[in-house]
Amino acid sequence: MSSFSFSSSSPVSKFQWRANYNPQPNRPIVPFTLSLLRGNCYSWRLSCNLTQQHGLDFEESVEQDEIPQFLDFSAAEEPDMEKATIDAPCTTLRKKKRGEESLDDRFKLRNGKEVFEEKAYLVGVERKGDGECLFNIEESLEELEQLADTAGLMVVGSTYQKLASPNPRTYIGSGKVSEIKSAIHALDVETVIFDDELSPGQLRNLEKAFGGDVRVCDRTALILDIFNQRAATHEAALQVALAQMEYQLPRLTRMWTHLERQSGGQVKGMGEKQIEVDKRILRTQIGVLKKELESVRKHRKQYRSRRVAIPVPVVSLVGYTNAGKSTLLNQLTGANVLAENRLFATLDPTTRRVQMHNGKEFLLTDTVGFIQKLPTTLVAAFRATLEEISESCLLVHVVDISHPLANQQIEAVEKVMSELDVSSIPNLVVWNKVDRVDDPQKVKLEAEKSGDVICISALTGEGLDKFCNAVQEKLKDSMVWVEALLPFDKGDLLSTIHKVGMVKETEYTENGTLIRAHVPLRFAQLLKPMRHLVKDTSLCKER
Ligand SMILES: Nc1nc2c(ncn2[C@@H]2O[C@H](COP(=O)(O)OP(=O)(O)OP(=O)(O)O)[C@@H](O)[C@H]2O)c(=O)[nH]1
Ligand SMILES: [Mg+2]
Predict the structure, then answer these.
(1) How many C-beta atoms lie closer than 10 Å to residue 452's C-beta?
(2) In terms of domains, do 346 and 401 share one?
(3) What residues are paired with 395 via a beta bridge?
(4) Where's the Hflx-type G domain (predicted)?
């Protein structure tokens, strides 16, 4: 093994590294790993570990600001170094290909809409001694990048800072603010996104510090933006609009500052007054939205109570975003719910009937995914949609077991579930995407050991029969034991019991069919008159 390092002034990020080994005459091509990248926007240091084989000699010395001849950064499409891993301990920047980008190229089609791909720069803070965080700062920033990508932004770089406590004025320290300002100029950044929720004051101060037309936003605003783009139903659109307005209200700042500029600063305070007017307008709009939302919810409740009249147990899929909930629903029911490798593909709940091979059935509901640092405003906004969850007989927690942060994601989901007060509903854990893990056998063994876990692949269909049986077993736990005498003209009820309940015994008597079964609670209530018949005819048996 031999290693070397060099420095350069070209901005470059770990995501954009595509290094090419430029073969020299009489030298075989040897794969090598880029192992370390340190630096800020103007200079960086790269170390490479080279497997020294075939008598290779890598003693080229590299001058400052010079890209070594055997590393060709312009050849970004070359796949040689696709898997190169580089740690970026502090700042990462993307290398742009000069003269290649036109404004037209930056209009991208997202969810059927054409959006301008703004250039974004990500900023995070790692709190020293903060044991509460499930994800470390790099993992959290990586997820933020995925969110930015889902929202249609182009991430050109990121940075983070370790702090004992955030700066009350600017969240980050003044040195970091200057560093980001330089990056903004160097990379034509249009939006700076912070990984944590910023206070209205911090937002204002940061926008002032960065100057120009740079937009500063935080994780919450970004998620709201995604939800806004994705809301497909009227209710979801209203919920998101309401959440966005409530988020904006204390943050109204820059919209009217142009009034002060236009009047040459002579009518100072004009912008301030306008902000007050604006806030009043926003408050009125919030009121209108709330009323509209209330009426939509009333309708949905009526619809749901109609569904409640059908005594089929409801099972809800919950889990981290991108875990595979919609894929599972599609696979089991043939539904055509959008399932894609993006965060928050699903916003609106979809319910479909699952028919098992043994004739049993249950309703399966797909819901909005959860995420770490899920803003409380959003949890509240989606509480109504999440009512579907709270009224289920069983919650199926879908986990992407192939994800490197599966354990942290499980914890984040459990945290949100306890916030939603649904921890008391029986639940079943499924480890999805077993087809993607390195050692499926080991994972399956682990699942078996932990008892209540089912391994599946929603994509290939592996383990789905086992999953349905486990659902059935779990549903049985939430059912009640009944003995009822069904008159012969109630044949339809009898077949429903067979579909939704677990029948233990049927006995044909001269007065009707005596049935002993576990049935959903709601159904047991429906059977009440027929349960009395059993007592009357003294056919009651010990369970
Ligand atoms: N390899 C593999 N990929 C899967 C599996 N299940 C889902 N996926 C993929 O994972 C991605 C996300 O799947 P979705 O079903 O949209 O995930 P979701 O949980 O509904 O995500 P949100 O709606 O964003 O919360 C898609 O690209 C799926 O094709 C699986 O079992 N194996
Ligand atoms: Mg989904």
Answers:
(1) 10
(2) yes
(3) 316, 427
(4) 313-479
Going by their DSSP bridges, the two strands 154-163 and 91-93 should be labelled as antiparallel
170 in the same domain as 70: no
Tokens coding 143: 């997820």
Supply the ipTM of this predicted assembly: 0.99
Q: Compute the chain's Rg from CA coordinates.
A: 29
Instruction: Tell whether 453 and 322 lie within a shared domain.
Output: yes
Residue with tokens 């190229």: 105
Q: Which of 74-78, 124-128, 266-270, 463-467 has the highest mean pLDDT?
A: 463-467
- Residues 296 and 347 sit within 8 Å (Cβ to Cβ): no
Q: Whose CA is nearest to atom 13 of ligand 1?
A: 324
Nearest CA to ligand 1 atom 8: 324
Question: What are the φ/ψ torsions at residue 182 (nearest 5 degrees)?
Answer: -65, -40
543: in domain: no
> According to the per-residue pLDDT averaged within each range, which of 105-114, 148-157, 273-282, 371-380 is highest?
148-157
Same domain, 223 and 156: yes
Q: How far is the CA of 198 from the centre of ligand 2 (A)?
A: 28
Q: Give the pLDDT confidence of 164-198 residue by residue, as tens digits.
A: 888 999 999 999 999 999 999 999 898 999 999 89
Question: Quick check: pTM over 0.90?
Answer: no
How far apart are alpha carbons 83 and 53 in whole angstroms?
20
Same domain? 46 vs 24: yes
Kindly give the distance from the C-alpha atom of residue 400 to the centroid of ligand 1, in angstroms, as a whole number. Answer: 8
Could you give the CA distance from residue 59 to residue 74 in angstroms, rounded to a whole number? 23
Cβ–Cβ < 8 Å for 254, 214 = no
> Closest ligand 1 atom, CA of 432?
31
542 within a domain of the structure (yes/no): no
Count of structural domains, the chain: 5
Edge-to-edge strands of the sheet including 512-519? 480-486, 512-519, 502-509
In a domain, 3, yes or no: yes
In this structure, the residue with its CA closest to atom 9 of ligand 1 is 324
Identity of the residue numbered 493:
L
Domain containing residue 238: 234-306
Is 12 strand, coil or helix?
coil
